[in-house]
Design goal:
It comes from Celeribacter baekdonensis. This protein is α+β, with helices and mostly antiparallel strands and 299 residues long. The strands form four sheets. It has an eight-stranded antiparallel sheet with strand order 2-3-7-8-11-14-15-16.
Length: 299
Amino acid sequence: MPAKSQLTRRRFLTLCASAPAMGLASAARAATQVWSGQAFGAEVSLELSSDALQVQQDLDAVVQELRQIEARFSIFSPSSELSQLNARGRIAVSEDMHEILRLARRVHLASEGLFDPTIQPLWEALVEGRDTAEARALIGFEHVEIGSSHVRLAPGQKLCLNGIAQGYATDRITALLRRRGYDHALVNMGEFRAMGGPYHLGVSDPAAGQLGRLSLTDGAVASSSPGAMQVGDETHILHPKGGVPLWSTVTVEARSAALADAISTAFCLMPRDQMARVCERLDLGPVMMIDFEGNLETL
């Protein structure tokens, strides 16, 4: 099967939204409006408290912003900024690309290299059934040069930003809604971010089902599950150093959805003590881990 059809989804989103406890001062004047769509090969959604006319106007802006973000970071569109970088190896980059790669570098360092966007050649080798030794030798985000206005890849390298782009999109849409006057919304562009709240979410595992719940107010949360999809003989969350996932599902709360998105990916590959160190470095919120026997732990 071609790489594109195999890699459409990085993960199942294993956080299932339940009815939010809105607590809105304006609840008598405005109903909760729900919108859903598609982005990055996944279902996305918004819950907004506003009148229907205003929501429709604002949704037009949301969709436009979302398509612009996809045009930057899609691994599947040959015309995307990411695809151009992968094809040419060095390009002048947009502010969006510079911002997301700087955050990726921060998480790469904090995770001791376990979050690494340079795994794309390994993805391609696994999907195509090729030997992976050459692709593994290309892994190393530390070799990517991030300049003030350009990015340069090491020879043969390619980036995949699926481990952070959905969270980044969630943050961008949240910021857009805030600028347009919203202070209560649940944004899900592949990961969740709440303005106001509390919003109650179910924490699920692909094998064990729903095992926990959390309440989200003015924060972000992301969940990663290695077993949600296979690529070749490996899970879709690839260990950049050749190891295997240690957890079936990891859910992380953080200040931003992009940070939660990226670090939840890396946490699937970490033992508990290493997670604790990274939580302190990045000032993360609570972490829930589900092991391969269906046991839930918290950190």
